[in-house]
Amino acid sequence: MAPQGPIPRQLGAILDVLGLDWSSLFAPAADAGENRNKVVGWLYRILDTLDSKTSHLLSFPALLLTAQTFLAGLLVRDRLAPRSIAISVLVLLIVPLATAVFGLIVFNVKWPFFGRVRAVDQDTFDEDHIKRELRELAEVCDQRFRAHKWSGHLCRASALAFLLTLLLALVVVASGSPKPAS
């Protein structure tokens, strides 16, 4: 009983770690249900880990966005920077903001357990339904993994954007632009 199409990455890894194969989850043997429970438990553990790691990861660009906004405010509000630098500093604020927005993909919660909400969905719950749900849950794990990975890359870009903002602020201060009279 081979799966239809390739097995999602996380599901394949879990099956390898547990020493199971796809067919063992649906074999007529008594332990098939126990094997499915183990796999589902691991998939939800992966989701929980990714959610936790991403939430911690996103606190970094939030701090950078705060500091970068403060610097940008000083340069723009007090008109210390030439227009080109002011615009550059404001555009650089997009990077940590985009990181936070992109990271929200990880926290997209629309996963009813096995596609069912008790007392609302009373469809028959057969083997094909379980197969489809396991694959969909594993695909959600894979999507969240990719979103977490890209959030990490965007965090590095946020750090670079902050450093560029800081560098531009230092250029303005070093140029000794006079502060306009009040």
Secondary-structure class? mainly alpha
The proportion of residues in beta strands is under 5%
Beta strand count: 0
Q: Low-confidence spans: pLDDT under 50, at least 5 residues?
A: none
Q: Give the overall shape, derived from the CA principal axes.
A: rod-shaped
Average pLDDT taken over every residue: 82
Major β-sheet annotation = none
Number of discrete helical segments: 5
What this model shows, in words?
The protein contains five helices and no strands. 69% of the residues lie in helices and 0% in strands. The protein has 182 residues and is mainly alpha-helical.
Keywords:
single chain, 182 residues, mainly alpha, rod-shaped
Give a topology summary:
Layout lengths: L8 H10 L13 H46 L5 H10 L1 H10 L23 H49 L7
Helix pairs in contact: 1-2, 2-3, 2-4, 2-5, 3-5, 4-5
Concise summary:
The chain is mostly helical and 182 residues long.
